[in-house]
Specification:
Largest sheet: none
Radius of gyration: 17 Å
Number of domains: 1
Number of helices: 3
Order of helices and strands: HHH
Oligomer: single chain
Strand content: under 5%
Structural class: mainly alpha
Number of strands: 0
């Protein structure tokens, strides 16, 4: 499920950077179609979800909520 989301985020970031003239259109195309960069973004999203889950659990334990 995170694969398509990571590719969409990658295209948005690359589109923004090409629009701001940080990258050329050819470089942007190469970055947005690179599967390794998409995998890195997918791992970053998974890490953020994991950190949010663990943070919520820690907060629930600290405030005495049901866990």
């Amino acid at each position: 499920m995170l694969g398509p989301i990571s590719r969409i985020i990658l295209r948005l970031i690359v589109g923004f950077l090409v629009g701001k003239a940080v990258f050329s259109a050819e470089d942007g195309n190469a970055l947005s179609s690179d599967p390794e960069i998409a995998a890195l973004i997918e791992m970053a999203l998974a890490s953020a979800i994991w950190a949010g889950t663990e943070g919520w659990y820690w907060l629930a334990k600290r405030l005495g909520w049901a866990t």
